[in-house]
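Figure 2 data, in text form.
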Amino acid sequence: MIDPCFYGVDAAAKLIDRERRAEAIVPKRLHRDALPFFFGVASPAELRADSVVAVGEHVGFHRYALTDYSFDRETAAIDLRCDSFDNDAGAALDRARTLRPSSIAIGYTRARLAAARGDLTGVQQELRSLEASAGRRRVMAYLALRENILFALNDQQQQVLLGLTPADLDGGKADWALALAETSWLRRDDAQARSYGQVAATAYAQHLENWGQAVDREQVMMLRAYGLAYAGQAREAIAEAGRALALERQLGLRHAYLPFIFARINVLANRPDAALDQLEETLRRRDFFSREWLRIDSTFAALRGNPRFQRLVSTDESARK
């Protein structure tokens, strides 16, 4: 899934800005980058009655919240930037969960918040709680579409994920194969990782053929590069990732997700310095991918002995100088 954030909601909701100056009814499955720019308007009759709750910020723009009518709109519009993962964020998500205890979107956001705080145990607890209410296979399919916390899965969860089919992901073969490639690699099954990586790269290439110049092309390019890296085609992966960042610059965008994935690509290509360059850029762009997140993310395990990485993830500012 492009830019796997909690804004990919699965039911209708209201869009309300921080000062409650404007409201618009928005359709299901919003994309994060659509919030400040593109949101369709539909009549209430066209929308489902059940709405989900998600909260967050698009950095550089006004904060927005997707809320239930009964949800406190002022406390919903909270700041979830990587330097502001405070108790208010957790409290707002707790209130959201009381409204929709079975919402995978809310639980996923809570898991990401725990990761941003460097709390691996908290991530795993949130995932177990989600499984209890929504079922393990459904939760694993949801995570496969948003592969950035797959590092937190235990052996049983990984095996369920590896048993998924594209149909579990609404037919998304590219996202399915990429999630299985990453999970196989985390399990040190390099042959399976290469095989699934090639499937993912091919599927993303097919998407790009039909994508034209539509929004998020640069992210699809980066995901294709990620698949190529798992497939063992490091040179092609680095080149494609470079083209994705060049397109991003051309469009005037700065998403933390792109350098974050490029860092993972460089780890797979055994380019630690380049990976660290991209992680530094990731932190500059401010998102869930905090220093604390990087410490617990095992996709960066190969960097943990690197003094530069140790300085980068240190919460002691003097140690980073």
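Caption note: The chain has a mean pLDDT of 75.
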